Amino acid sequence: MEKLIARINELARKQKTVGLTEEETLERAELRRQYLDNFKRNFRVQLDSITVVDNDDSVKH
């Protein structure tokens, strides 16, 4: 994940300075998709592990 973020940031810096080639633009889009897929998957795991406890100590999933 760290390598993915580092490459996304590297491409972002390059975009701001000299611009990206078509290949780099496609790579950036794919890396962003991978990052978001990972984020969504990890967030879903967190949400699935949450247990709500009411004031009367009843557990709801």
UniProtKB/TrEMBL annotation:
Keywords: Cytoplasm
Classification via Gene3D superfamilies: Helix hairpin bin
Primary localization: cytoplasm
Compartment(s) of residence: Cytoplasm
Xref: Pfam families: DUF896
Listed HAMAP family: UPF0291
Similarity-based family: Belongs to the UPF0291 family.
Name of this protein: UPF0291 protein ACFFJ8_06995
